[in-house]
């Protein structure tokens, strides 16, 4: 089976992450609290390479293949924990995203929000 | 079209998130740096309801339907920013997860990692 | 007694924070884990007003007195949790900072580190 | 001069942190935005050793002197960035803490807040 965004439904990713934890008997550690803490830790690592850089130099990081791989790994870690959080909470992620984006669309109507950096969720 | 984890490939979610930002002309704010900061902010909000609670009471939160919806919304926000980060960085998320999980499998072989809370990625 | 950075030793701040928690019988919730999570949550709130802004507009935020007060409050929250973490862990914060800065000075000698945005602690 | 919480006013710590950055010509990177991101990164590192542990085992970490030193270093890093944020923003930290704690006292009166884990700032 091939893993690409085009061919992989979210449920496949969820199942793979669940199996990985199950095989290692890690579910005992995977409370929602602990997973949210681990996810936040990975999110902080994703920020780290950018923290002292301005816009242009941020983009340049992705041109360097070793740095790109490190950044892709951090992003993967974030999403892996999000998937396992969904697994452990019995959450359908696509459904949750669908509902949240509908709320966001009401909160930020195109004509008012256009081009504005005002606080948004 | 129906949005569920079973039926939705990652690419559909990515495209929806990209379209939302494009329609609002928000791409100018969506540098990788800014998106990583926003993602970390949402990750912190996901932790927040759990921060003073121990294991049992964490689980109970999801029984309360208003709290469940709030938590699902926070998780959705985290993943929305992860998807947009992938969009802006030209990252195939399923591929990145596939590669990262292969690395994790080497780092935490089942027989050694089983049941241990030792540091893991 | 007056509270200003010039006149207030760290120990006074620590004691005030400890007393606040003690009076409310909150020490039961103040494990090191929970305090580190709460601190990270406040740190995320401190980032939030800056997340979509570039350099110049960041500075302008502090000119607006309501926004300045909100930002000062978030910074205070971060430090309050750091002080309570020190209280609960029996950590002398000034001593810890003294030791860490000595390590940093070895890691980033002036002549090599000058003007460079390379990764630093 | 001796550095301990009892003898060190906040202003001394601030000045030391400011001098360190000034000597390395790092002020150019120390925008409020970048410092808030760096602070959040250090806060995440402070959480990390606790993320999979429950209460008792969290406390045990501080008995191990190498782990204690690592945790004290992370706490120091958090506070160092908070002090530099205060420096760059022209914020009197003790004053900000004094004001924030007065607000907290109004928000969480002793008789109502006692022993309750309900959301608090």
Short key terms for the protein model shown above:
homotetramer, DCTPP (chains A, B, C, D), Helix Hairpins, dCTP_Pyrophosphatase (chains A, B, C, D), 6 helices, nucleoside triphosphate diphosphatase activity (chains A, B, C, D), 121 residues, Nucleotide pyrophosphohydrolase (chains A, B, C, D)
Explain the overall architecture.
4 copies of one chain form a homotetramer. Chain A is mainly alpha-helical. Chain A has 2 domains: 10-90, MazG-like (Helix Hairpins, Orthogonal Bundle), CATH 1.10.287; 92-121, no CATH class. Chain A has 6 helices and no strands. Chain A has helices at residues 10-23, 32-47, 55-61, 65-89, 93-107, 110-113. In chain A, helix 1 crosses helix 4 (65-89) and helix 2 packs antiparallel against helix 4 (65-89). The longest helix of chain A has 25 residues, at 65-89. Chains in contact: A-B, A-C, A-D, B-C, B-D, C-D. Chain B binds chain C through residues 29, 34, 37-38, 40-41, 43-45, 47-48, 50-52, and chain C through 29, 34, 37-38, 40-41, 43-45, 47-48, 50-52. Chains A, B, C, D: GO terms for molecular function: nucleoside triphosphate diphosphatase activity. Chains A, B, C, D: This is Nucleotide pyrophosphohydrolase.
């Amino acid at each position: 089976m091939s893993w690409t965004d085009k061919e992989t439904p979210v449920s496949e990713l969820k199942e793979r992450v669940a199996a990985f934890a199950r095989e290692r008997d890690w579910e005992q550690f995977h409370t929602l609290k602990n997973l949210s803490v681990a996810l936040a830790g990975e999110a902080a690592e994703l920020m780290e390479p950018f923290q002292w850089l301005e816009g242009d130099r941020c983009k340049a990081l992705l041109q360097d293949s070793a740095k790109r791989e490190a950044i892709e790994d951090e992003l993967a870690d974030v999403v892996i924990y999000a998937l396992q959080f969904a697994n452990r909470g019995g959450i359908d992620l696509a459904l949750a995203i669908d509902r949240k984006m509908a709320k966001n669309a009401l909160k930020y109507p195109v004509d008012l929000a256009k081009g504005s950096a005002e606080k948004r969720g």
